[in-house]
């Protein structure tokens, strides 16, 4: 293992999802010393651990895989980026997940048990029950733990990048209340999504948009922030709609699960020719509309042997008091950000020696809507490529930012109250549907919130305050990009009905 008191490394990776872990592997293979810093406490704190559906591969038809990705994006994905994904998919999965980690994917006899999810035209998704993420994530962590050139430091937050004249030299890291600079030849951001900006999400609790905000504040280009994907089938236990929500994998619909409204009617054929297997944005809007019209939507799993096919999900339903035999109550919830820090085919940002991979990056693969089970694949492919490219750079120490701690601590509920205000605006104005006439008012509220938080950051340094800062910066970017895009496409769905202005408290 690396010396844990060392504050330099060849490559600093921030984040421990599959993208960050893949970047660490890529850099280590090139002979670099790697520090992987993560806010997560292992393993449940990373988004990849929660991934259910699986990881898509090209199999023997990359052109059809590409066509499905482009179709799901409503024609907005970058074809060149999609080529990078589909052309490297099989090799990356074979190399890392099979040969290196020996992930025990479900099998059908001697062959992998490929399944199908929404908007895929064929069975091409590797999976382990409906809990693929943790079965990939834990072996990945164990593999890196065993490498002497890699140090993993958990419960550690990156607060700010160390940069000068367009080049990034490291990051300010906080652990157990202590803030120190960590210098690196290259920095790879792999901080995940923005779920904590919304009241209901499938993301872990610490998904506050850190990497996106740090990169944007450092001057990096950010794109497509308006494209926030909502997963259409998140279980909402009837006893308490604000607690205990959990994702019901798209694979359940792929295996025959049907969506029914409060009147017991199957409704998806009225919305799209592919019915339950339509693109996520279409299904999410349909579920929202039917819930509003009939009071509820349930996922009918009676057409399949649910307990046998998805034992983990059946157990989770039981743990939350959900009688799946009577239909699983579902609603849309924030799931994935399709935009982020703009990167090229190697994860390079517009700042020298700064990389971004995984959900915090914008590769162009997803466009306005992500195809199911491509997030783990994107993180794996771009993570490996970024890690390899980031290796071999010299470390240069410069003056680190002076993060002040001179004023009294803020009240315990300060961050909680500000987050409540932020989430209220995001839920009401930047959800499944947006009113273009109201986005400007939402931006005004978020600007004021960011200004208030910035004032406190000037004289105080804490993880919770910087998370709030990152969340407010990221929320404002989502609102700004949404207001600037007058085209209703994919996850950016515009409605014209007038709406009440968002509350300012």
TrEMBL record:
InterPro entries: FAD-dep_OxRdtase_2_FAD-bd (IPR003953), FAD/NAD-bd_sf (IPR036188), Fum_R/Succ_DH_flav-like_C_sf (IPR037099), NadB (IPR005288), Succ_DH/fumarate_Rdtase_cat_sf (IPR027477)
Pathway(s) of this molecule: Cofactor biosynthesis; NAD(+) biosynthesis; iminoaspartate from L-aspartate (oxidase route): step 1/1
SUPFAM superfamilies in UniProt: FAD/NAD(P)-binding domain (SSF51905), Succinate dehydrogenase/fumarate reductase flavoprotein C-terminal domain (SSF46977), Succinate dehydrogenase/fumarate reductase flavoprotein, catalytic domain (SSF56425)
Keyword entries, A-Z: FAD, Flavoprotein, Oxidoreductase, Pyridine nucleotide biosynthesis
GO molecular-function term, one example from the UniProt record: L-aspartate oxidase activity
EC number, UniProt record: 1.4.3.16
Highest taxon of the lineage: Archaea
Entry keyword annotation includes Flavoprotein: yes
Any GO BP: NAD+ biosynthetic process
Cofactor or coenzyme needed: FAD
Enzyme class name: oxidoreductase
Domain FAD-dependent oxidoreductase 2 FAD-binding per the UniProt entry, residue ranges: 10-376
Similarity field: Belongs to the FAD-dependent oxidoreductase 2 family. NadB subfamily.
Name of the protein: L-aspartate oxidase
Organism: Haloarcula limicola
Source species taxonomy: Archaea, Methanobacteriati, Methanobacteriota, Stenosarchaea group, Halobacteria
